[in-house]
Amino acid sequence: MHHQVHIRAAFDRNGGPATQVKAAQTITVHILVLWIASCFSSQLRAQTLEFAVSEWPPAEYSVNGQAHGYHPDIVRAVLKSLDMDAKFTFYPWKRSEMLVERKKVAAILSLHPTKERQRFLYFPKEHLSTSENVLFVVNGREFNTPHIDALAGKTIGTTSGYDYGTEFKRVVAAGLVRTDVGNTDEQGFLKLLAGRFDAFVCDRAVGSRLLKSLGLSATVHALPLVISSVRMYAGFAKTPENAVLVDKFDAALRKLKASGEHQKIMDANLK
């Protein structure tokens, strides 16, 4: 873009063009400074990456509009090493997926790669954490579950949009297990308490944290059987910028783990 500046000649007392030249130089410098400042400001704005997130404590949750939890803390540390900032905006889970699929936000936390998700998301090779899914039951309503096929005939509560691993999908697809799908983990625990199903499947850390906040820690507990251990990732919308960024994010996350800082973040959030 060319900036045209019209300067009226302003001669000094002796009739020379000195004032005109000086004025032109001053204005040129001002324009250059403003242009540089504008470019620098644009670069700063481009360095902030927006993530769609959902309430899933202690992995990710909001307090007074600020994102907390081990996943936001890990992402902040990774992006800081890349001279970038993170912005976290909270939405219901299904809306988060819709927004990143439509490229309304740059990225999303936290999810497991599936064939469908890989259609519209880039995934780093490095995962953020591992989600250990277990069955929660009301005290006094326990049942023996030496393996997942022992769930035959049971109705299990699940949360919409969540991935509980291939073995759980198998027993559901085979008709061995019926599912009752809710919108949130909190809704799932309340339905469990009301006797709507036999057990509720949830991440162990998330479930324990939620039961504590609901005042149900002495009423509901987890069974020993681990339904699945699912690796959780940051997902990036398929844009040209993210095609480059995802590899940088992957390398930076690998370094964070090697330094021990990743484990420190996990320990600080789970203590």
Structure overview:
The protein is globular and about 55 Å long. It has helices at residues 18-46, 70-81, 93-101, 166-173, 185-193, 204-214, 240-259, 261-270; strands spanning 48-53, 61-63, 66-68, 85-90, 107-111, 121-122, 129-138, 155-159, 178-182, 199-203, 220-237. β8, α4 and β9 (178-182) form a beta-alpha-beta unit. It has 271 residues and is α/β, with parallel strands linked by helices.
Labels describing this entry:
271 residues, alpha/beta, D-Maltodextrin-Binding Protein, domain 2, 3 domains, nine-stranded mixed β-sheet, two-stranded antiparallel sheet, 11 strands, 25% strand, globular, disordered N terminus
Secondary structure: elements and pairs:
Elements lengths: L17 H29 L1 E6 L7 E3 L2 E3 L1 H12 L3 E6 L2 H9 L5 E5 L9 E2 L6 E10 L16 E5 L6 H8 L4 E5 L2 H9 L5 E5 H11 L5 E18 L2 H20 L1 H10 L1
Parallel strand pairs: 1-4, 1-5, 8-9, 8-10
Antiparallel strand pairs: 2-3, 5-11, 6-11, 7-10, 7-11
Helix pairs in contact: 2-7
Please report the distance between the alpha carbons of the first and last residues.
56 Å
The sequence of SSEs as H and E is HEEEHEHEEEEHEHEHEHH
Low-confidence stretches: 1-15, 36-46
Number of domains: 3
| Number of separate strands | 11
CATH architecture of the largest domain: 3-Layer(aba) Sandwich
What fraction of the residues are assigned to beta strands by DSSP?
25-35%
CATH class of the largest domain, named Alpha Beta
Quick rundown:
The protein is an alpha/beta fold. Helices cover 40% and strands 25% of the residues. It folds into three domains: 1-46, no CATH class; 48-129 and 231-270, D-Maltodextrin-Binding Protein, domain 2, CATH 3.40.190.10; 131-228, Periplasmic binding protein-like II (D-Maltodextrin-Binding Protein, domain 2), CATH 3.40.190.10.
